[in-house]
Amino acid sequence: MPRLDDNTQSLLRDTEQGVRERTTRAWDSFTNFALRDNVLEVAVGLILAASFTACANSLVTDILLPLISLLPFLARNLDEKFATLKHGPHYNNSISTGYNTKEQALSDGALIFAYGSFLDKIVRFLLIALSLWAIASVYSRASDDNIVKKQVKCKYCRKYISEKAKRCVNCTSWLDGREDR
Description:
One of its GO terms (cellular component) is membrane. By secondary structure, the protein is mainly alpha-helical.
């Protein structure tokens, strides 16, 4: 193997040392950023929030919505409810909406009003909000730590603030009566 001259070998050694120093500095900077306490707490919080969201969605989709679909006016899947505004060439008069599914109506070129999908999303939102409120209430009773904080309106700016606040965060007025004296 041919040997490099001293000048080239020195240049390569200096370059290698510079690359190692920059890599070490970059690694230290990354670990200082990524492994700080608050970044790890946020990461763990996001992972827990994602798993809690999956549990709440499953509660609503798999348990509550099937029970609600037993109601007479929701006899079939709510998200499949639609009304035909303008029918396509293969419209079937023997069916109330003219089509069996939304996809069938859309593929026929019909103009449909898909109100069921919107109502389904509203019902899901309300059920998820209600179930999260119930879980927060049970947690508050069990641990004596209120998640759901009571809020009142500031009598000066009419914005909502904490019930225990001594001073409004919006208009900075004192709520203990100092402003009235």
